[in-house]
Amino acid sequence: MTGAQYWTEKNQIAKRRTLDNNTDQTVLDIINQIKQSGDAAIRQLTKELDDVLLPKFQVTKEEFKDAYKQVSPAFLRALTKAKNNIQQFHAKQMQQSWFTNSHSGILLGQKITPLEKVGIYVPGGKAAYPSTVLMNVIPAKIAGVESIHIATPPQANGKVNPHILVAAKEAGVDSIYKIGGAQAIAAFAYGTETVPKVQKITGPGNAFVASAKKCVYGDVAIDMIAGPSEICIVADESAPAPYIAADLLSQAEHDEAAKPICITADRTLAAAIQLEVEKQTELLSRKHIIKQALKQNGRIILVKHLNEAFTIVNDLAPEHVQLMIKEPMENLRYVNNAGAIFIGNYSPEALGDYLAGPNHTLPTNGTAAFSSPLGVYDFVKKSSIIHYDKTALLETADEIIELAMTEKLTAHAESINLRKDGRNAKSYN
């Protein structure tokens, strides 16, 4: 399609996946069951939805030890390298409390305090995502969170995937619970006899998990409501078509609703990418998912020049942007809305998913226009610090009183007047 066609079909291409009322109602029912019956409701729902009957939810020390026997040395080496890179990157995000004394008698500042308890949801069951464990736990640990807990669905045998357990142990998690879906989110939000109530819930999940996070928000904080994976590659003739196709397909395999998009001004390259996508798809194990994603949301957009490409990128505000062009650093300034930006032909999105260090928990559904990747800053809270001595307050008392009276907030004004005049309260009736 052309750039002009993009703007004509924009509402369809940039359509955001929303949660339906049926899902929300099902989730609300689950949440109410957890609030009313706690562990008993979790046990019943796990039997109904996961076909697993669990006497206990918490992973034992023996299960952690056994997990190490089931993973390969190569996995452990790769995990360690990823862990180190993620730690090094996120350590630079640490914020410090600060104070300023700009005037005699005045002290202002900001106090940074880590959250006390955090719950992390890690998708599981049929698949394992140890990278999700690292990307959520490590920033929380660096922030100084005292207590970090994971919920993940049990496998058919009633156990947790060993790769998840090893990743959790290496990252420093305090406990893991074999609970999936909306019931896990509800358990973290409200607490049960076994599961601790937390202050914030992070981590991706299916539509039921996303709906549950939306429903409990306000009673507990959440990171974001994640949508389908998105990638937008801006490419010119310097980029190899096989690389571009492979990177598009790496996102298409996530979900039938994923959005793999490439924008180029080179008609020959566009044709080559199309051929490569078709050829490579047939070689992949998840081709049934990929074909649906390509059919529904896959696009190669042919523009007249790169300026037009960046206008479309910023309109889409995608989760991932790849700049596979001759001078990517010079053009980086034109990308304003993106969760993560990958620069050059040898910085594929998969690099960011696993090993580079920046977080792979990114804003989706166009929210990169106003949101940021998960980071250390998501696991702290900020308190303003204000101290005036008597002289400093009296110097500005009249201005405070004027503003308070303008807003007809007489109690505010009187709280200043009492200190200014050194007298008892008076009536404003």
From TrEMBL:
Belongs to the histidinol dehydrogenase family. Its EC number is 1.1.1.23. Zn(2+) binds at Q251, H254, D353, H412. The gene is hisD. GO terms for cellular component: cytosol. NAD(+) binds at Y121, Q183, N206. This is Histidinol dehydrogenase. It comes from the Bacteria. Coiled coil: none annotated. Its cofactor is Zn(2+). Keywords: Amino-acid biosynthesis, Histidine biosynthesis, Metal-binding, NAD, Oxidoreductase, Zinc.
